[in-house]
Every structure is written in C-alpha cells, then in structure tokens.
Design a protein that fits this description.
The chain has helices spanning 59-73, 81-91, 96-114, 118-122, 140-152, 166-179, 195-205, 222-231, 245-254, 264-267, 270-282, 296-308; strands spanning 3-21, 24-38, 43-48, 128-130, 132-135, 157-161, 184-188, 210-214, 236-238, 259-262, 286-289, 312-315, 328-330, 332-335, 338-341, 349-351. By secondary structure, the chain is of the alpha/beta class. It folds into two domains: 3-117, Enolase-like, domain 1; 120-351, TIM Barrel (Alpha-Beta Barrel), CATH 3.20.20.120. The strands form four sheets. The chain has an eight-stranded parallel beta sheet with strand order 5-6-7-8-9-10-11-12. Strands 1-2-3 form a three-stranded antiparallel beta sheet. Strands 4-15-14 form a three-stranded antiparallel beta sheet. Helix 9 (245-254) runs parallel beside helix 11 (270-282). The chain is globular and about 60 Å long. 49% of the residues are buried.
Length: 360
C-alpha cells in the first residue's frame, strides 16, 4: 500500500457567536482538511486548525507546508508512520498543526487497514470520557444564561474562560455555583493573570469547588506558575506552556504544574501527544485532552486519544459545537455529558466532499 495523492481543503466557517478568551477573540473557524489517498482505495482524513497565538501558523502556512512535504509522502507506505513522521518533523520546523493533520490522516488509514478504531490502536483504555463545554468570556448575565442552558441540556462539566477581570471572574464563579451545586467547574485564564493576581483570585475561588485552573500565567513564566501551584489549594494545569517533549520535561523537572493539557494542534498530532503523555505519567502528572475550535475530524481524533490512554483524566473536546455548520459528520456524539465514538474503524468520520467548496 502506497500513498498516491495528498489533497488539502481550506475551510472558513462562521462561529455561532464570537468566542473570546484572555488573549483574543474570533468570529470564525479557519482550518484545513487533509485527505491522503492510497493506491488500494483506503482514504485517511486529517485536520489542521492553525493559530498564530498557539501554533504560529495561518491557513496559508499550512497549505505551504503541505506542498513542501507532498513529495515526501507520495509513494510511501502509510503504515511506516514513524519513519514518515521523522521525515516530516525534520522538513517542517514548527508547523505543528500541519504535522497534526498528516498524523491524524495516517492513523485513520491505519485503523481502516486493520479494521480497528484508532483508540484501540493506541491502547483502548475506556469507552467514553466526560467532556467539559466551554463558556468564553462574556458579561455576567450572558455567562449565567449560557451556563443555565448547558446544565439543563445535561452538561456535567463547565469550563469557564477567565483572566481579564479578577473581580468579575470571581463573581461569575460564585453565581454559577449558586445556579447549580453539582456541576463540575473548571477555569481557564489563558495566561491572563500575573502570579500575584492568580494567587489572590484563585484562593477566593477555592470555596466554590473549582476542580482546577488552567494556564493562570504567561506561558514562559514557569517559576510564576510553580508559585501559584504551591500557594493555592486547587490543581494547576499547564496548557500554552507545554507544546513539546522538551516543554513537558521542563514543567516536570520544575514541578510547575499538577496537570497538562494535551492538544493535537499545538503538539503536532496523536503520536507526539502519546509520547508527551508517557513522559508526564512517569512524573506523576495527569493529562487532559483539549482542542481548538475544530471540525469533528480534529475533535474526534482527540477523543480517540483521550479514550486510549490511562493517564488522561479529563477531556475538553467540544470545539465543533461552536461552528454554524460543517461538512464533517459522524466520529463522536455527546451522551449524558460524555464523548462516545461512532463508527467501527479508523476515526469514524464522514466528510461530505461534494460540499467542501461551500466552505472554501
């Protein structure tokens, strides 16, 4: 079996509402679906969801990167994925979401070739995982309205974006807890606080049962993150601070966090996330699998990863819910607040290729 064709489909899809976090705001998804076709007819789908803030890429960068590695892929056996990854990694400096797209597609092919779900190729630890639904930064009343809607729909865990206004952040947490005593509540500052601000506001949030705080300080301030971790009662999760094996090793050595958010787009795909998870597991650090705003291709791939690994304790895999529409179907479904897989082999997603031009 050989790869015979590499195709890329850039997409732009409006979001249902603007999505705001401490470092910026977006009103649309811009990404690239990647299709690898083999000479025996098996097709693999992958996705790149680039972000200049996180991966340092744009859609144009992804397309240029794919053009750059097309010659490395065509004619090669997709089952020799580790060798292909080595070639691609050497050829593309950075470009982690581009690498992720190819890596996801290779796993899709491998699953279809072996008639196995990707999660079973990776370990098959569990059949479902509870996922949070994220509420971006909004006014207090709008935040409470959205939280109430999600709780009534059966959401078990809410992830609240914070980091711009400590007093308002605290008030939102108080009011959501008054709304429902049982819902799990996670907060994500996206680097928005100084260490001093984080320590102060997180201590005040502790009585309201916050399970963890994600990335409270600037990504490069590991000493500051450690100071926050050592000063507050709730676990601290690193996100933007960990994008590579080397980053994971640094936070583990410094004991700068309790948890790490694995994301396919920032780390370069499933294969890299597995390696990073193994390193962190050896240091006693649990993981969450998160996502960007993505179609079901990327979010389904993340779900396979989360279900496969014993060291993955949490999931924030909801990025497709913010799109107004999508050419991708299948893959996953949320039932009783948890992500479950659809399909029997590979990723299990279906891409409406005839409709892709509508999203270009």
């Amino acid at each position: 079996m050989k790869i015979s064709k590499v195709e890329s489909f850039p997409l732009k899809i409006p979001l249902q509402t603007p999505f705001k976090i401490a470092t910026g705001e977006s009103s649309s998804y811009e990404g690239v679906l990647v299709k690898l076709t083999t000479d025996i007819g098996i097709v693999g789908w992958g996705e790149a969801s680039p972000s200049q803030r996180i991966t340092g890429e744009t859609v144009k960068d992804v397309l240029a990167g794919l053009d750059q590695i097309r010659g490395l892929l065509v004619g090669r056996d997709p089952l020799e994925a580790e060798a292909l990854w080595e070639l691609i990694d050497a050829e593309l400096e950075g470009h982690n979401s581009t690498k992720a797209a190819v890596d996801i597609a290779l796993f899709d092919i491998l699953g279809k070739r072996t008639n196995l779900k990707v999660k079973n190729l990776l370990g098959g630890h569990k059949d479902s995982i509870e996922t949070s639904i994220t509420i971006g930064i909004k006014g207090i009343n709008e935040t409470l309205k959205k939280a109430g809607e999600l709780i009534r729909e059966g959401t078990k865990a809410l992830k609240l974006k914070i980091g711009l206004d400590p007093e308002e952040d605290l008030e939102k947490v108080k009011r959501i807890r008054e709304l429902d005593e049982g819902v799990k509540l996670w907060v994500d500052a996206n680097q928005g606080y100084t260490p001093e601000q984080a320590i102060s506001v997180l201590k005040e949030m502790e009585p309201y049962g916050i399970e963890f705080c994600e990335q409270p300080v600037a990504e490069g301030d590991l000493e500051g993150m450690k100071r926050v971790k050592d000063s507050v009662g709730m676990p601290i999760m690193a996100d933007e601070s960990v994008k590579s094996l080397q980053d994971a090793q640094r936070v583990a050595q410094l004991e700068a966090c309790d948890l790490v958010n694995l994301k396919l787009m920032k780390m370069g795909g499933i294969r890299k996330c597995v390696k990073i998870s193994s390193l962190l597991e050896g240091s006693g650090i649990w993981c969450m699998v998160g996502c960007m705003v993505e179609t079901k291709v990327g979010v389904t791939a993340g779900t396979h990863l989360a279900l496969a690994l014993a060291n993955v304790k949490y999931a924030d895999l909801d990025g497709y819910l913010y799109l107004t529409s999508s050419p991708v179907r299948g893959g996953i479904i949320i039932e009783e607040g948890a992500n479950r897989l659809l399909g029997t082999m590979g990723l299990g997603v279906e891409v409406g290729e005839k409709n892709l031009a509508e999203y270009a």
